[in-house]
Amino acid sequence: MSSKGNELNHLAIIMDGNGRWAKKRHKPRFIGHREGMDNVERITLAADKLGIKVLTLYAFSTENWARPKEEVAYLMNLPVRFFDKYMPTLMENNVKVNIMGYLDELPEKTYRIVQRAMSETANNTGLILNFAFNYGSRREITSAMRELGGMIEAGLLTSEKITEEMISNHLMTSNFGPYRDPDLLIRTSGEQRISNFLLWQLAYSELAFSDKNWPDFDKNDLTKFVEDYKHRNRRFGKVDESDS
Ligand code: IPE
Ligand code: IPE
Ligand code: MG
């Protein structure tokens, strides 16, 4: 470990607690989601300044469809609001947008805006802002298994040739190459669970939890978590160098 500490290339955040943020203020849940959306922009710019290369944000899970239909409709419209409002700032900051999830199940308008955000920022070379939207990790792994199964059926692969690398390459994070697994996962709102997020990719990620609800999680909080991460001892199953 260098004196500067661990490198933080890929940060993943489970942005939780929008509903509770609103409830505390006697406001409807959607107000919390609107505040949460503005915080995405603030944290994106802060992450970029901290030198992070990939920022993955969990914005809508495959299980979130089970919420009341008005809330689902509001959440489905958030990408439209977000990119309408922040696209110029994202362009100015050279941010490249990626959306991972089952996009063909999104309402038409949402689908179009996320595709446009990806294509308009495709040539940007700065921070990759990766939204997990209609994303679920078990489903992602299931899809990967089906793809590999299909290759076997087509005679392109045999089961004993399946490697960990191949499985990683069939997940939605594959295009991030060496940065496809998060170095650090932060979850806000005090909950300490994964909620079907990046199960494979988090195998050796450092985990951190904040009691703040997502709209209150600010750049000072982010900086503190990043500093703490840098001084953690990541062993990856090996013996600590100073002990050997
Ligand atoms: C996170 O906030 C946003 C989404 C899951 C879409 P929540 O809406 O889960 O807020 P809480 O957990 O109910 O407070
Ligand atoms: C996880 O939060 C999903 C997102 C942040 C998008 P949830 O609020 O849906 O998770 P649970 O239900 O508390 O596990
Ligand atoms: Mg929640």
Could you please say which CATH topology applies here? Undecaprenyl pyrophosphate synthetase
Q: Classify the oligomer.
A: single chain
Sum up the overall morphology in one term. Answer: globular
Low-confidence stretches: none
The SSE order reads: EHHEHEHEHHEEH
Provide mean pLDDT, rounded.
97
> Major beta sheet, specifics?
6 strands, parallel
Overview of this protein structure:
This protein has a six-stranded parallel beta sheet with strand order 3-4-2-1-5-6, sandwiched between helices. It has a single domain (10-135, 182-232), classed as Decaprenyl diphosphate synthase-like (Undecaprenyl pyrophosphate synthetase, 3-Layer(aba) Sandwich). It is of the alpha/beta class and 244 residues long. The chain has helices spanning 18-24, 29-49, 69-92, 108-120, 137-153, 164-169, 219-230, and strands at 10-14, 54-61, 96-100, 128-135, 184-187, 206-209. It has seven helices and six strands. The structure holds 3-methylbut-3-enyl trihydrogen diphosphate (IPE) (2 copies) and magnesium ion (MG). One 3-methylbut-3-enyl trihydrogen diphosphate is lined by residues 15-20, 60, 64, 75, 189.
SSE arrangement:
Elements: E1 10-14, H1 18-24, H2 29-49, E2 54-61, H3 69-92, E3 96-100, H4 108-120, E4 128-135, H5 137-153, H6 164-169, E5 184-187, E6 206-209, H7 219-230
Parallel strand pairs: 1-2, 1-5, 2-4, 3-4, 5-6
Helix pairs in contact: 1-2, 2-3, 3-4
Bound molecules: 3-methylbut-3-enyl trihydrogen diphosphate (2 copies) and magnesium ion.
